[in-house]
Amino acid sequence: MKRINLLLATSAAVSLAAGSAFAADMANEMTIVSWGGAYSASQLNAYHNPYSEKTGVKIINDESSPEAVAKLRAMKEANNLTWDLVDVEAADAIRLCDEGLAMEIDADTQLADAPDGTKAKDDFGDLMVSDCFIPQIVFSTTFGYRKDMVPAGTEPPTGACDVFDLQKYPGKRALNKQPVANMEWALLCDGVAYEDVYDTLETDEGVARAFAKLDTIKDQTIWWTASAQPVQLLADGEIFMGSAYNGRLFAMIEEQKQPVGMAWDWQMFDIDGWVVPAGLPEDRLARVMDYLYFATDTQRLADQAKYISYGPARKSSAPLVGKHATLGIEMAPHMPTDPNNAKHTFVNNYTWWADYRDDLDAKFQAWLAN
Amino acid sequence: MTEATTQPGRVLAADGTPLKRSLARALRMQKIRALMLVAPLLIFVLVTFIAPIADMLFRSIENQVVKDTIPRTVEALDSWDPHSTELPPEAVFAALQADLVEAVDQKTHTRLGSRLNYEYSGAASLLRKTGRGVEKMKAPYQEAFLKVDKDWGDLELWRTLYIYSPAYTNGYFLNAVDLKKGIDGPEARPENEQIYILLFKRTMFMSLVITFSCIMLGYPVAWILANIRARTANLLMILVLLPFWTSLLVRTSAWKVMLQQEGVINETLVWLGLVADNDRLILINNQFGTIVAMTHILLPFMILPMYSVMKTIPPSYLRAAKSLGATNWTAFWRVYFPQSVPGIGAGSILVFILAIGYYITPEIVGGTDGTFISNRIAYHISKSLNWGLGAALGAILLGAVLLLYYVYDKIVGIDNVKLGG
To answer: What keywords are assigned to this protein (chain B) (predicted)?
Structure first.
């Protein structure tokens, strides 16, 4: 008995010492890179502020995510890593992981379990598209349309395929100036079965078929490059319908009360999440992992949905999604993952795009230019 | 007897050393002092400007990643004939296995994958996938590799590996001019992938149009500024400089508001009845929009050098010409204009060189046919991470500008350029 007590006491002392040594070895400041705007604000409210309150750590917000891939590489080459955690899209995470610029993370041991004890890897499920990537939110590229420009006596558009129907819905369209999503929609709306889309795109005939479909609306399309553009074009009445990120459309419809409706069918799912730059010094790495454990748990991910209409990446977070923090409306129906919105969804095949992006991008740009 | 008399023709300084040497020493001291004075700037320019550019340009030929990641394979592959219709021998596969085991250990195999993926779509995931089980592979290796993925049996993949195994390559430059590095030298790219030559031509053409519009619009303004009362000129000068001080993005966005179909110009035209409501003019998201916006943005760079040159042309010359019987036009064309050419030259070089590298404005208002080569360079630097291709495109652009500068020097003469009086 005595011996057991002694053993317990020692182990407690050791773990206590280890614990305090651990805390002392963590950096007191961290730079987190994200996208800015409403999205950064939602992270600030859901993650950064609670974490700072809990630990007293100062979090510096850098809004460089749009050029994160190139900057991380430049930092690595200059051997001067100033970022601790970076918010990127899944496709970029794969690239960063391949280039050895992001660190591999074992979700099961380094991230929190779900409240019911499910391991993190199972909780995130298919969304963990790369060993370096910790998913945060699911967003979608979907369509918004001007309600006041729907021709009289016509049903309003319901989804991506209506963008190709110039007879029924005349007027300008806006699409993202990149092959991703547009090529898939073109094939899908041309009658290719969902499961055959990527196989078809691997062939020259498939690519030609997609471009032929896009050709039918080419001279009616404005191509956007920044996510604020399609929303602005809709607000100005420059276009009848356009693809945009669902969170931007939500803000436009619910916060700014613009006469715009959503056409959810065949929305393109995409994931956004964290990567940790490879080669962080130990104290900063310890701090980042501590932050990640906190910021990617079930409750925190559900909290973020109070501030922006993007779905939490953990399955266990979904039931916890509540009302919008300031508007007071129920957020669940505005999530891309809501069953009413997700009748037909398209899941972006990141690994496929990582392989074919360069090739198809060259073809896409050549198609655009000619 | 003094030395001077023994060596006739040598003049001595006061301290007895030959004057020539003494003078050279004094001059050398002066040169060193001058060099010391400019040294901070020189070093600054070298470190922050020349070195990074040289480093970036070097990437356009550098290709060490293949050789560094799979050295044994590269060596073994050397004896393989890329024209043959047979896969490389077992020894190559064995070498590849050994190389990949090491590469996986250092996590460099995926870097090789992304490098090869620029030339062979699918290489990225092929290497990622192969890396997972490569350690457990057993001989015969060819079979083992083919079992992981049948792409290892694709001759094109092996040819790509063969072509890109040297440490230096001209492959990026060939890609940058719509060609492809093949086993027998450059090959043409399929037509649906050709884009860069078109963009280079368009960039040159549009920059020339923009430069020309700036001359046409800027010349009268500079003339007025140089020939009115100083106080009014200063006031007008603020109007020229005001857009100069406004953010580029704000100016570009303002043009969007002006030119779009529901924009100010179209609204006014519809209101005046000049344009039908359902047939509004398309003024933006095309070449026209880019030219308008960029001409506006670059105009001050044209007006300022022109103004400072015109300021130095004495008005009495024009009066003299007229008093000698010249018409207004002759006096302007034969007397005033030739003297203002150095200003036009300086302005044109500034505007043209700035225009050729512009990318924010074409990105925002360029649509599909108004984008420049710099938009592609930006894409390769920040999105695809294909810095080699980006560097090659940049090097070609730099070469083109230097060539044009040379031609300009031959035709107009670079001495005939003035930024001020």
So the answer is: Cell membrane, Membrane, Transmembrane, Transmembrane helix, Transport
Q: Which domain holds residue B129?
A: 64-168
Residues A240 and B308: their CA atoms lie apart, in Å, by: 50
Of A70, A355, A370, the CB nearest to B122: A355
Interface test with B, best of A71, A202, A358 (most B CBs within 10 A): A358
Candidates A214, A355, A356, A367: best to mutate against B (most CBs of B within 10 A) is: A355
Do B378 and B250 belong to one domain? yes
Task: Average pLDDT across each block of 10 residues of chain A; the chain has 370 residues. List them in order.
Answer: 48 44 74 90 94 95 91 91 95 91 93 93 90 94 95 94 95 94 96 95 95 95 90 93 94 92 94 95 95 95 92 90 88 87 88 90 90
Using CB atoms, pick whichever of A223, A237, A366 lies closest to residue B194: A366
Domain shared by B82 and B157, yes or no? yes
Interhelix angle A350-369/A204-215, rounded to 10 degrees, is 50
Domains and CATH numbers, chain A: 2-138+272-320 (3.40.190.10), 139-270+332-369 (3.40.190.10)
Across the interface, do B382 and A237 touch by the CB < 8 Å criterion? Answer: no
C-alpha–C-alpha distance, residues A269 and A228, integer Å? 19
Domains held by chain B: number: 2
Length of chain B: 421
Q: Which two tokens stand for residue A28?
A: 């007191």
Q: To 10 degrees, the CA torsion angle through B245, B248, B252, B257?
A: -50
Q: Say which of A67, A352, A362 has its CB closest to residue B195.
A: A362
